[in-house]
C-alpha cells in the first residue's frame, strides 16, 4: 500500500491548480452569478489544458489517464468552485462510456465540442442538461428537470459519487482556508478572533475531518480504477467522509465569519452551496450508509481475525 | 410545583386563538404563513396597526401605555397562539420587545409620552443601531461618534446588521460621545428619526437571497438634545439593559414557531419515505426531545420570575434554542434530500424548510454568537476567570 502520488500526477495537479489560482478567483464566480453562469472562454481553457480529454484514450485524442488523476483534478475543480460541467462530462461520463464500450463521442468530448449530462434514477435533476430549468440553491448550477427517466446503472452511480466526493475535498479545503484567513485578520477584543480557542479549535476539528477524508477518496478512486469488487463500498465510504468534512467545514466557516458569513457579498456561500448540492447528488448520506451497513452486516466485507483491511 | 396553565390562562389562550385565527382567515389572510421578515412589508405594517387598534400590539406593557398589563404567562400564551395561527413575525419586534421596554425602564415621562403610545399603536417602527463593522461580538468598541452642537446631537459613523432599517421610522444608536474614550465608557444611547438626509440605508443581501439586514450610514445626522435615554455616558448600561430584554421575555414564546417547523419536517419525512430511515427517525426523536427541553426550560424560567425579569438560567437559553434550530435546519435538508435544494421558482426564493436551513445558520451568530454565549455562561453564570484578551 503506497499512498504517494507519482511525479507526473503531482505535476498535473500543480499545473491545474496554478492555472486556476491565476484565472479563476472568487471574482469570476461573482461575475458568472450576474452574467449567466457559463463562460465559453473558461470551457475553452479547460479544453486547451487537455482536461476534457483527461480520461479519453489517446487513440481518441485524449490523455488516457485514469480515475485517480481524474479525482485529483476534480478536487481542484472543487477548490475553485468551478461551475463548468467538466467533472460530469470528462470524469463521470467518459469512464462510463468507455466501460460500456461506447467510444463514438469520445473524441468530440476531448475536443470540447460535446458535453454530456447524465441522468440517474437517484438524481431527479441533472446539471447542464436539457429540460425544464430549475433554480438550484447553488446559484452557479444550471439544473434541469430531465425529460426522460435516468439510468440505474451502479457503475455510473459509483463514478458520480466518487467525483462528487473528490470535489467536496477541494471545496472543504478552500472553505477552511477562507475561514482561517478571516480568523487571522478579523479582530475583536483587541486581538484576531483566531486567537480565541473557541474559534481555533473549531477550525482544527475541520482540518481533522478533511485530512482523514482525503485518503479515503483516493482509496476509492484506485479501487474503481483497479476494478476491485469492493469498490462500491470504498466509494460509499468516500462519499460520506467527504460530505461530512465539507458540511462541517461549510458550517464552521460561516460561524467563524460571524454575520459576514451569512451575507451574499462574502464569497464563502458559493462554496457552501456547491457543497450542499454535491452532498445530495449521486446518493445522499442515508443511501451510502445503507450500502455500507449492508456490506458490513451482509458479508461482502469479510470480518474475523484472518482478514486484514483491503 | 404546579404544572400547566390555570383555567383563567386557558380562557385567555382561547381568546387569543379565536381572534388571531379570525384575522388570518379574514382581512389579513394574504400574509398568513409568510416565513421571512421582508415579504409584503406594507401589509405587515398595516398588521402592526391592526394589532395595536385591537389591543394586541404589546400586551405585556402597562395599561396606561397601550398594553394590557399581561402576566409573563399570558405573554407566552399569546406568542404561542400567534405562531400556531400562522401569523408572520412582527416587523416591529424591536419596537415592542426592545425599544419600548427600554424607554419604559430608563426613559423620562416625556419620552414615554412621546414614543410609547405610537409604538403600541403600530405607528412607529424601530430598528437597532448597535453593531458596527468593527464592533460585533466586541460591542463595546463602537466608534460611531456623537457630539452636542447648538442643542442637537450630531452623529457620524456606520452601523451594520440593522434589521428592517429600510422600513423603520426610528433607530436607537449607541454612540461614542466622549472623545478618546474606550470600551464601555463614554457611550450614549440616542434615539434618532430615520427619515433625514444624514442617514443612508443600504441593504445587505443574505445567503438566502433575502435582504432583511442593512448598513446604516450617519453623516452629520441629527436628533434633538433630549433624544438620549439615561444620561450622557450612560449608554453601555442602557444597551446592556436592553439586551437583557432581548435574551429574556421575547424568546420565551418561540417554541410554537419551532413546533410548526418540526411538524412540517415530520410530515415531509412521512410523505417521502425518509421516516423509514433509522438515522432520520432518531434525529426526529432527538429534535422532539430538544423542543420539549426548551419548553420545560422556558416554563421553569417563567415560574422563577417576579413577572418583570428572567433569572440567571436565562443565560443558557440563547445557545440552546439557536443550536437546536440550526440542527433542525440540517435535519430538514436531510429529510427533503435533493428536493430541498431545488425550486421551480425562477427567482432565488425558498420555501419554509430550505429557508430554515439557510436562515438558521444566522441563529448561532446574531444576538451573541454561540462562542460569546459560552463565555457568558462560564464567566457570569459559573464565575470562571475571564478569557485573556488583547489590548483594546
In short:
The complex is a heterodimer of chains A (310) and B (392). Chain A is mainly α.
Question: What would your notes on this structure say?
Answer:
Chain A has helices spanning 7-23, 26-35, 40-48, 67-79, 86-100, 106-110, 154-185, 197-225, 231-257, 268-280, 285-298; strands spanning 125-127, 132-136, 142-145, 187-188, 191-192. Chain A folds into three domains: 7-113, Butyryl-Coa Dehydrogenase, subunit A, domain 1, CATH 1.10.540; 117-152, no CATH class; 154-298, Up-down Bundle (Butyryl-CoA Dehydrogenase, subunit A, domain 3). In chain A, a hairpin with a 2-residue loop joins strand 4 and strand 5. Chain A is built from eleven helices and five strands. By secondary structure, chain A is mainly alpha-helical. Chain B has 392 residues and is of the alpha+beta class. Chain B folds into three domains: 7-91, Orthogonal Bundle (Butyryl-Coa Dehydrogenase, subunit A, domain 1); 126-234, Beta Barrel (Butyryl-CoA Dehydrogenase, subunit A, domain 2), CATH 2.40.110.10; 254-381, Butyryl-CoA Dehydrogenase, subunit A, domain 3 (Up-down Bundle). Chain B contains eleven helices and nine strands. In chain B, the strands form two sheets. A four-stranded mixed β-sheet of chain B has the order 1-4-5-8. Chain B has a four-stranded antiparallel β-sheet with strand order 2-3-7-6, with no helix packed on it. The longest helix of chain B is centred in the last third of the chain and has 26 residues, at 278-303. The termini of chain B are far apart. The mean pLDDT of chain B is 91. Classes of the chains: A mainly alpha (310), B alpha+beta (392). Strand 2 (132-136) of chain A pairs antiparallel with strand 9 of chain B, so a sheet runs across the interface. Chain B: GO terms for molecular function: flavin adenine dinucleotide binding; oxidoreductase activity, acting on the CH-CH group of donors.
Amino acid at each position: 500500500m503506497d499512498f504517494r502520488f507519482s511525479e507526473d500526477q503531482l505535476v498535473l495537479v500543480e499545473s491545474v491548480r496554478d492555472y486556476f489560482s491565476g484565472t479563476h478567483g472568487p471574482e469570476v464566480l461573482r461575475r458568472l452569478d450576474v452574467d449567466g453562469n457559463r463562460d465559453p472562454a473558461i470551457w475553452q481553457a479547460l479544453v486547451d489544458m487537455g482536461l476534457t480529454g483527461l480520461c479519453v484514450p489517446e487513440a481518441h485524442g485524449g490523455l488516457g489517464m485514469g480515475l485517480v488523476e481524474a479525482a485529483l483534478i476534480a478536487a481542484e475543480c472543487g477548490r475553485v468552485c468551478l461551475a463548468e460541467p467538466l467533472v460530469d462530462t470528462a470524469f463521470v461520463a467518459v469512464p462510463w462510456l468507455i466501460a460500456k464500450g461506447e467510444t463514438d463521442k469520445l473524441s468530440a468530448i476531448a475536443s470540447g465540442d460535446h458535453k454530456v449530462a447524465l441522468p440517474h434514477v437517484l438524481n431527479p435533476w441533472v446539471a447542464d442538461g436539457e429540460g425544464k430549468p430549475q433554480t438550484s440553491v447553488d446559484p452557479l448550477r444550471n439544473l434541469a428537470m430531465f425529460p426522460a427517466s435516468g439510468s440505474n446503472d451502479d457503475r455510473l452511480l459509483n463514478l458520480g459519487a466518487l467525483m462528487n466526493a473528490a470535489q467536496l475535498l477541494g471545496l472543504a479545503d478552500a472553505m477552511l482556508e477562507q475561514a482561517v484567513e478571516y480568523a487571522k485578520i478579523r479582530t475583536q477584543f483587541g486581538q484576531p478572533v483566531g486567537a480565541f480557542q473557541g474559534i481555533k479549535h473549531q477550525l482544527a476539528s475541520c482540518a481533522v475531518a478533511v485530512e482523514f477524508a482525503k485518503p479515503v477518496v483516493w482509496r476509492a478512486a484506485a479501487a474503481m480504477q483497479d476494478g476491485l469488487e469492493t469498490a462500491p463500498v470504498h466509494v460509499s465510504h468516500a462519499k460520506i467522509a467527504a460530505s461530512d468534512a465539507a458540511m462541517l467545514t461549510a458550517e464552521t466557516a460561516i460561524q467563524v465569519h460571524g454575520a459576514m458569513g451569512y451575507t451574499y457579498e462574502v464569497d464563502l456561500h458559493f462554496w457552501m452551496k456547491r457543497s450542499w448540492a454535491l452532498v445530495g447528488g449521486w446518493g445522499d448520506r442515508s443511501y451510502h450508509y445503507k450500502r455500507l451497513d449492508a456490506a458490513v452486516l451482509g458479508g461482502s466485507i469479510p470480518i474475523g481475525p484472518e482478514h486484514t483491511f483491503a | 410545583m404546579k404544572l400547566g396553565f390555570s383555567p383563567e390562562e386557558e380562557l385567555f389562550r382561547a381568546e387569543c386563538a379565536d381572534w388571531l385565527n379570525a384575522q388570518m382567515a379574514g382581512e389579513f389572510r394574504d400574509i398568513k404563513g409568510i416565513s421571512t421578515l421582508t415579504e409584503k412589508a406594507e401589509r405587515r405594517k398595516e398588521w402592526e396597526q391592526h394589532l395595536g387598534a385591537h389591543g394586541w400590539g404589546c400586551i405585556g406593557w402597562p395599561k396606561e401605555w397601550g398594553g394590557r398589563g399581561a402576566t409573563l404567562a399570558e405573554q407566552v400564551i399569546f406568542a404561542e397562539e400567534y405562531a400556531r395561527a400562522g401569523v408572520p413575525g412582527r416587523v416591529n419586534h424591536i419596537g415592542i420587545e426592545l425599544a419600548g421596554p427600554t424607554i419604559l425602564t430608563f426613559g423620562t415621562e416625556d419620552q414615554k409620552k412621546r414614543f410609547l403610545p405610537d409604538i403600541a399603536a403600530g405607528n412607529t417602527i424601530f430598528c437597532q443601531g448597535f453593531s458596527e463593522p468593527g464592533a460585533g461580538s466586541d460591542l463595546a468598541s463602537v466608534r460611531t461618534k456623537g457630539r452636542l452642537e447648538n442643542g442637537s446631537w450630531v452623529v457620524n459613523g456606520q452601523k451594520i446588521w440593522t434589521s428592517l432599517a429600510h422600513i423603520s421610522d426610528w433607530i436607537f444608536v449607541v454612540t461614542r460621545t466622549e472623545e478618546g474614550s474606550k470600551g464601555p465608557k463614554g457611550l450614549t444611547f440616542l434615539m434618532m428619526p430615520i427619515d433625514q438626509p444624514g442617514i443612508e440605508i443600504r441593504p445587505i443581501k443574505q445567503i438566502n437571497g433575502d435582504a432583511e439586514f442593512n448598513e446604516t450610514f450617519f453623516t452629520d445626522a441629527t436628533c434633538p438634545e433630549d433624544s438620549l435615554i439615561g444620561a450622557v455616558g450612560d449608554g453601555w448600561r442602557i444597551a446592556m439593559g436592553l439586551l437583557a430584554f432581548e435574551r429574556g421575555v421575547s424568546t420565551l414564546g418561540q417554541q410554537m414557531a419551532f413546533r410548526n417547523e418540526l411538524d412540517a419536517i415530520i410530515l415531509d419525512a412521512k410523505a417521502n419515505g425518509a421516516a423509514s430511515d433509522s438515522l432520520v427517525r432518531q434525529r426526529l426523536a432527538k429534535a422532539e426531545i430538544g423542543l420539549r427541553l426548551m419548553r420545560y426550560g422556558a416554563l421553569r424560567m417563567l415560574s422563577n420570575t417576579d413577572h418583570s425579569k428572567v433569572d440567571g438560567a436565562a443565560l443558557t437559553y440563547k445557545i440552546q434554542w439557536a443550536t437546536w434550530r440550526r440542527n433542525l435546519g440540517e435535519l430538514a435538508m436531510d429529510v427533503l434530500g435533493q428536493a430541498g435544494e431545488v425550486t421551480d421558482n425562477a427567482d432565488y426564493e425558498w420555501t419554509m424548510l430550505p429557508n430554515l436551513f439557510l436562515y438558521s445558520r444566522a441563529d448561532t451568530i446574531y444576538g451573541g454568537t454561540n462562542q460569546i454565549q459560552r463565555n457568558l455562561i462560564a464567566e457570569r453564570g459559573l464565575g470562571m476567570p475571564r478569557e485573556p484578551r488583547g489590548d483594546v
